[in-house]
Each structure stands twice: as structure tokens, then as C-alpha cells.
Design brief:
Strand content: under 5%
CATH architecture of the largest domain: Up-down Bundle
Largest sheet: none
Radius of gyration: 21 Å
Number of strands: 0
Low-confidence stretches: none
Shape: globular
Order of helices and strands: HHHHHHHHHHHHHHHH
Mean pLDDT: 84
CATH class of the largest domain: Mainly Alpha
Distance between the termini: 45 Å
Structural class: mainly alpha
């Protein structure tokens, strides 16, 4: 009989994955409702897009300091608090009577989003070992992609049938209930670990100067740069695949959405397969080769436009998604390999600040490229970003080996 069933590896990984699922549902809560929100508040597409930006901007500001808090007090209650704030913000936005209220709720939800990655990875690192952390990271990442897939289906369907207000309030209430359930059922495994280390309980935290010195460590900067560049490529694929399909290949919007759905689904499948693979093979080289092959696939998308068939584009995007998914658990093992066990929250807060920066920069940069030139040119940039990300891992690998 397991003494702490609620604190064992399987249970904690499941809880973290469920929280990550809702994090990603909330990240995509507004886009499925854009037509309804545009009609309700008489706003432009740019103003609707600002709702998404408002969610990501706080993550640039707060992930690192909240990671420090995680390392001081433990991850469980920080995770629960973030889920509560995000749930109440998204649910509250269903009661908004103006666009500016909606924007404010989006910004506050972004503050809640800032806790997920530092807290998630602190919990995962606590309950997994080198032999099974790839599977843990895989389950966590799969939960996020499942949330991305569920958001348009669930929120969009409720919005169309019952109204955007009910859609947002409903998903917010469900998220709040999940937060309460996590608070009542999950052991504070990370906090116990902190308390078990001599002197940690009395830790007062890093000064600003110490924090700057901490994040300037070479290995951490490699991972930060990798997360930033790889996220720019990932967001580019997610954001502009439909644009490439419509304007590069000449497909219908319905066909374009099918391509994106298949791409994301195959990414999720790749994540599931990539977890055990990351535990059995060299995770750094998995990242390198999957990113290089993905870049080759993106190049194939570019050179085949506009004459390729729908079937060819579908197959190529499915392969790219699967390859990218295979790399994601190894990506997280690469990050975890340079983390100080006593500063997991701070380290992953720093890494995912880079990821959030990539998510903010990429749509604007690639959007400008599309406006000035064409969608295929933007995908050339996406392919180059994948190669740069792979190169960062290679340089980090050989630099580490020589020190």
C-alpha cells in the first residue's frame, strides 16, 4: 500500500497535466468567440488580437519572480492560486459590458497564467527521476496540446449555441472547481522537499543583483535562447498555416482549418511517443534531428506552393507536427538537465519567459513579412528558426562537454 497515494508520481503528473490542460484552454478562450465578440463590442480584428497579447504580456513580467516564489514556498499552492485567478478572470470576462473590461480580464488572466510553468515543472522535477521524467514531461505537454484542441471545440460550440457570455462563464466555473479539487487532493510534495533541505525553510530569496547573476549563467542562457527561438517557429506554424494554405496553395478556409487541426493532432501524438523516447535515447540529439527534419518539411511546404495537392500538404504538415511533438519531451529534459534542483521554479520561470517572448514577437514579425512579401517567405523564416534552435542545442551540447 502506498502511504501517500496523492503524492506519488502518477497522481502528481496527472494533476499537473490536468492543470496544464486548463491553462491552454484559457489561452485560447477568446479566439473561438472572435466573431461573436466583434459583433457584440463593434471592435476591429486588431483589437480582438490584442486580447491574446494581453494574456501573454504579464507572463513576460511575472514568470521569473513567481518562479522564485515557487522555490521559496512550494509549488502546489502557487499552482492552485494561478488556476483560481485565471479561471475567475476568464469566467468574469463573460460578464464584461465593454471591450476594455474584457481586455482587463484578459490581462489579469495572464497574471494567473504566469504560475503554471514554474509550478508545473517544480512538481514534475520533484516526483520524477532521470528514468521516467521524459514520460512525465510528455504527459504534461500532451495535456497542454489537448487543451488547445479542446478550446475551439468546447468554447466555440457553447458560444454558438448559448452565447459567448455563457461559454466564458462556464469554462471559468469548471476551472475554478478543478482548482478546488487540486487543493483538496494533492500532497504538497515540493514544499516538503524544500523543508527537507537544511536552511531552505529560512530562505529570504535572492536580491535583484543575485537574480541577474543567476539568469546570466551560460547554460541557462542557452536554454532561454532555445525556448525563445523554438517558440517563434511553433507559433508561426500555428498562427499562419491557414494563411499559407489559403494564399499560398489556394485552398478554401475550411480545408486550411483541416490542415491546422491535423498538424496539431499529430503534434500531440508525437508528444506521447516522444516521452518514452526521451528516456531511452540522447534527448539533446532527438531535439536536434527532429528540428532539422521539421525544417526540411517546412522547406517542402514552401517549394511545393502553389501547385501541390491538398493530400500532399496534409501529409507534410502531419509529419512536421509529429516530428515537432517527438522533440518536445526531449526539449524539457534538455532544460531540466541544466537546472539547479534548488531553483527549479526560478529556472523554468526564466526559460518560459523566453518562450512567452517568442510567442509575443513571432506573430508580429511574421505578420509583417507576410504583408510586405508573401506567406511562403514567412515560412522560410520559420524553417530558419527551427535550424537556429537546433544549432543552439548543438552548441550547448559541445560547450558543456568541454567544461
Amino acid at each position: 500500500m502506498i502511504e501517500y497515494r496523492r503524492g506519488d508520481t502518477s497522481f502528481v503528473v496527472a494533476v499537473v497535466s490536468i492543470a496544464h490542460f486548463f491553462s491552454h484552454v484559457f489561452l485560447l478562450a477568446y479566439p473561438p468567440l472572435f466573431p461573436l465578440l466583434a459583433a457584440e463590442f463593434s471592435v476591429t480584428t486588431a483589437q480582438l488580437g490584442l486580447l491574446v497579447t494581453a494574456i501573454y504580456v504579464p507572463q513576460l513580467l511575472f514568470q521569473l519572480p513567481l518562479g522564485e516564489v515557487v522555490d521559496r514556498v512550494g509549488a502546489k499552492w502557487i499552482l492552485v492560486s494561478g488556476l483560481v485567478v485565471t479561471s475567475l478572470s476568464i469566467g468574469g470576462s463573460g460578464l464584461a459590458t465593454s471591450y476594455w473590461m474584457l481586455l482587463a480580464f484578459a490581462f489579469v488572466s495572464g497574471i494567473g497564467q504566469s504560475v503554471f510553468h514554474p509550478a508545473d515543472y517544480a512538481l514534475l522535477e520533484t516526483v520524477t527521476t532521470a528514468e521516467n521524467e521524459g514520460k512525465g514531461f510528455s504527459a504534461h505537454t500532451f495535456g497542454g496540446y489537448a487543451g488547445f484542441a479542446a478550446a475551439p471545440l468546447v468554447i466555440g460550440s457553447i458560444g454558438i449555441t448559448l452565447g459567448w457570455q455563457i461559454a466564458l462563464v462556464t469554462v471559468g466555473v469548471v476551472g475554478f472547481i478543478v482548482a478546488i479539487a487540486i487543493s483538496l487532493t494533492t500532497e504538497s510534495v515540493h514544499a516538503r522537499r524544500i523543508e527537507s533541505i537544511s536552511g531552505r525553510a529560512d530562505r529570504t530569496g535572492r536580491t535583484l543583483r543575485q537574480m541577474v547573476t543567476f539568469v546570466k549563467q551560460r547554460d541557462l542562457l542557452f536554454v532561454f535562447g532555445f525556448y525563445l527561438v523554438s517558440m517563434m517557429a511553433l507559433v508561426g506554424l500555428q498562427s499562419f498555416t491557414t494563411v499559407l494554405a489559403v494564399y499560398g496553395y489556394g485552398f478554401t478556409e475550411s480545408a486550411a482549418n483541416t490542415l491546422l487541426t491535423v498538424h496539431l493532432t499529430c503534434t500531440a501524438i508525437g508528444v506521447v511517443v516522444g516521452g518514452p523516447l526521451a528516456d531511452r535515447a540522447s534527448f539533446r540529439w532527438i531535439v536536434v534531428w527532429m528540428f532539422v527534419l521539421s525544417a526540411v518539411g517546412v522547406g517542402g511546404l514552401v517549394v511545393s506552393a502553389p501547385g501541390a495537392s491538398f493530400t500532399f500538404a496534409l501529409l507534410l504538415l502531419a509529419i512536421i507536427g509529429f516530428l515537432f511533438g517527438l522533440a518536445l519531451p526531449s526539449r524539457d529534459k534538455f532544460a531540466n538537465s541544466v537546472v539547479d534542483p534548488d531553483a527549479v521554479g526560478t529556472s523554468f520561470g526564466f526559460f518560459f519567459t523566453g518562450l512567452s517572448l517568442g510567442a509575443v514577437v513571432s506573430p508580429a514579425l511574421l505578420g509583417v513579412i507576410i504583408d510586405l512579401w508573401t506567406a511562403p517567405i514567412a515560412f522560410v523564416v520559420v524553417g530558419l528558426l527551427l535550424l537556429v534552435a537546433a544549432l543552439i542545442v548543438v552548441v550547448a551540447t559541445y560547450t558543456t562537454a568541454q567544461t
